[in-house]
Amino acid sequence: MNPVNLLDPLLSQIDEVRARCPELRFGQLIATIAMLAEDETGQSLWDIDDADFAAALERFAADLARREPG
Amino acid sequence: MGARGVTASASWIAASIAYFRRQGEGRKVCVGFSLDLCYPGSMACDLRDIDPADLRLPSSRSSGADPVKLQRQMAIHGSSTSGMPPLLAYEGSDGALELFDGVTRATRVAKLLPGTTVQVEVMGKLKRPKAGNRRVGDSL
């Protein structure tokens, strides 16, 4: 159970991240974020809280942003 | 950035567009990839030349490349790596690189050009080791 509804901001950020890496299929994108969340928490995707998934998404967005010309 | 850099970038864009067009993917995808590589002086890009057989498969793709997609890429590109965008990976705490984009490309090169290195863009470091994951070379 997740105490706060993070779904809307999560979906919104997924949309933004997807625009930054259109070469990734949607499933690939989710699998990559899940891999980062699993690496951070040691839990499987099934058990990861929305907040931890959001943190992994944030990290992936930051990693992508670093690739872009400044 | 010097004129030489601009020239190299323009040719890279053209090669990438051609590469993805051959795969039936969109122009926008190609340009996005190429622009990332156009300005090496202004970004923190960790590009490495790696034998693709040593790359680790993502756990969600541990069986290796989709055989149908692999055959299609082999038919289209053969053993050419010309214009191939860098593979994308994260680095495990033990230094092993886990792919998250380019499993089919890595498998094609490992299969048809054994020992040849490819360019891998390392996006960041992970907390956990990845050497235990299956290698691309294990899936050939």
Structure description:
The complex is a heterodimer of chains A (70) and B (140). Chain A has helices at 7-20, 26-41, 50-67. Chain A has 70 residues and is mainly alpha-helical. Helices cover 69% and strands 0% of the residues of chain A. Chain A is built from 3 helices and no strands. In chain B, a hairpin with a 5-residue loop joins strand 2 and strand 3. A 4-stranded mixed sheet of chain B has the order 1-4-2-3, covered by helices on one side. Chain B is 38% helix and 16% strand. Chain B contains 4 helices and 4 strands, in the order H-H-E-H-E-E-H-E. Chain B starts with a helix and ends in a 15-residue tail after the last strand. Chain A binds chain B through residues 20-24, 28, 31-32, 34-36, 39-40, 42, 59, 63-64, 66-70, and chain B through 25-26, 28-29, 32-33, 35-36, 38-39, 42-45, 58-61, 85, 90, 98, 100-101, 121, 123-124, 126-128.
Please write out the topology:
The complex is a heterodimer of chains A (70) and B (140).
Chain A: H1 7-20, H2 26-41, H3 50-67
Helix pairs in contact in A: 1-3, 2-3
Chain B: H1 3-22, H2 27-38, E1 46-50, H3 67-77, E2 87-91, E3 97-101, H4 103-112, E4 118-125
Parallel strand pairs in B: 2-4
Antiparallel strand pairs in B: 1-4, 2-3
Helix pairs in contact in B: 1-2, 3-4
Q: What are the key terms here?
A:
heterodimer; A: 70 residues; mainly alpha; 3 helices; 0% strand; globular; B: 140 residues; alpha+beta; 4-stranded mixed sheet; 16% strand; disordered N terminus
Structure, briefly:
Chain A has 70 residues and is mainly α.
